[in-house]
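hey so u asked for the seq, here:
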Amino acid sequence: MYNNSKDIVWVDFDSLENFMIDVFKGIEVPEEDARICADVLITSDKRGIDSHGIGRLKPIYYDRIKAGIQSPKTNIEIVNDGPTTAVIDGHNGMGQVIAKKSMALAIEKAKKMGLGMVAVRNQPIMGLPAIML
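ran it, structure tokens below
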């Protein structure tokens, strides 16, 4: 395949992030969740981890939602909740949203008790670890 630098089109990160938000919203991901997902994906690209960025938008998220494999609406259920730990069922919603909310719960528990740990089940592969959030 012939590739000339004249053929390369550079798109700024803000435009890509806004595009991803629009795509997610177009497949019924709520706006707040779409923003979380787009932020995680674009941050991956900004860090040079192209394999887990915008390149996953179509083959992973769009296709899985359209196929009914993944839910565009994230319904998080706390299955077990203790003072320092919790188990969350993500019901195959958006992994980035599940990770962010799970991490927030773990941080809340750690601030109160000195330790916080949350396990998650039924969370689709999301790309980067929740630490990015």
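The first strand starts at residue 77 and ends at 81. The helical segments are 13-26, 31-46, 57-66, 95-113.
lmk if thats what u needed
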